[in-house]
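Why predict the complex rather than its parts? Because the way molecules touch one another can change local conformation, and only a joint prediction can capture that. The input here totals 243 residues.
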Amino acid sequence: MSEIENFGDYETIEKHIIRPPIPNALKKYWNNRYNLFSRFDEGIWLDYQSWYSVTPERVAYSIAQSIFESHKPELVIDAFSGCGGNTIQFAKFCPVISIELDPIKIAMAKHNLAIYEIPSSRVTFIQGDVLDVLRSIDFASQYRTIIFMSPPWGGPSYSGKSTYSLNDLIPYTFDILYKEAFRITPYIAAFLPKNTDIDELAQYSTDKNRIVVTNFLYEGYSKAICCYFNMKNVLASTALQQV
Ligand code: ADP
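Output of the joint prediction:
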């Protein structure tokens, strides 16, 4: 038993781990499992929802590396931790505070971090609603902090829309999340659908503060974008990236 399993009632967590036979709706994600986690076979835990929302490992690494190289953060806040795909990669570079509403996902994230040999002292998990938690960690503004958010897009149906509005994020619109994050730091990164409304995004840009958008391509197709706000040092060379 690893320490993660002490986090909650293991039997409750166990019931949420997806294992073969894989439900039909998740088969395409299962077939992609080694892109999600190269160490998948060492025992990665994902619940149903996380199969389609976890950030693929190379994408998560690339985001963490770009942020670290350009801004040398002392602290990263991962505002929607899920099962830990992004947190694992950030924690390779600096200490992380990971926020997540669902305690089952936190238990899974802790387990997954251990597989990637991230010391548990490197990541502080805080269970709760993202806005409540952001309000409660004002101390983070004393550090060179970056807030990364990969908020719920509303499930896979986002891709059917011609344009994805920032108001379609759930449970909070992008504007609410951005303003709350901005109270702590102007350095904000958001992982958003490939079809995000660029005009809406542009409203967060000023002459002084440009937005750098990285478009992650997979097998030649755009999969998702990462938007870096007030972080003009993020290299423009990451702007179009094959992963
Ligand atoms: P998607 O719609 O992209 O599939 P999810 O619904 O999986 O995204 O949500 C991403 C993560 O955000 C999940 O782990 C979910 O538990 C978490 N989450 C959702 N709402 C909140 C919230 N209000 N505060 C903190 N975490 C949240």
